[in-house]
Amino acid sequence: MKTHQLKVWPEFFGPLSTGEKTFEVRKDDRGFRVGDVLELREFSVLDGFSEKEPLRRIVTYLLAGPAFGIERGFCVMGLKEAE
């Protein structure tokens, strides 16, 4: 299990924080695995990191490309809130 610190744009951070968005699409340049923890920090190109607390999510499912329209080298991760 690894912890990955990732930037998240504000338009996605809000739905992640409320539980409305339960997945993340990323370039799989880190070797993501089920059980890994994502530490998600709100980030804007203009303002940098916000002062909001990072979100911690556990990867519960991983769908890697090339499959179902997902490009090679990218993945979709199912997430749940870390305890």
Features:
single chain; 83 residues; mainly beta; Archaeosine Trna-guanine Transglycosylase, Chain: A, domain 4; 6-stranded mixed sheet; 1 helix; globular
Ordered list of secondary-structure elements with their pairings:
Layout: E1 3-8, H1 10-18, E2 23-27, E3 37-44, E4 48-49, E5 55-64, E6 74-81
Parallel strand pairs: 1-3
Antiparallel strand pairs: 2-6, 3-4, 3-5, 5-6
Describe the structure.
With 83 residues, this protein is mainly β. It is built from one helix and six strands. It has one helix spanning 10-18; strands spanning 3-8, 23-27, 37-44, 48-49, 55-64, 74-81. Strands 1, 2, 3, 4, 5 and 6 form a six-stranded mixed sheet that branches. A hairpin with a 3-residue loop joins strand 3 and strand 4 (48-49). The model has no long low-confidence stretch (mean pLDDT 96).
* Helix fraction by DSSP (H/I, runs of at least 4): 10-25%
Oligomer: single chain
What is the number of beta strands?
A: 6
- Radius of gyration equals 13 Å
Strand and helix order: EHEEEEE
Just name the CATH architecture: Roll
Q: Examine the coordinates and then state which fold CATH places here, giving the name of the CATH topology.
A: Archaeosine Trna-guanine Transglycosylase, Chain: A, domain 4
Percentage of β-strand residues: over 45%
* CATH homologous superfamily label: Hypothetical protein
**CATH class annotation:** Mainly Beta
Report the mean per-residue pLDDT as an integer: 96
Give the overall shape, derived from the CA principal axes. globular
Give me the number of helical elements.
Answer: 1
Question: Main beta sheet: strand number and arrangement?
Answer: 6 strands, mixed
* Global structural class: mainly beta
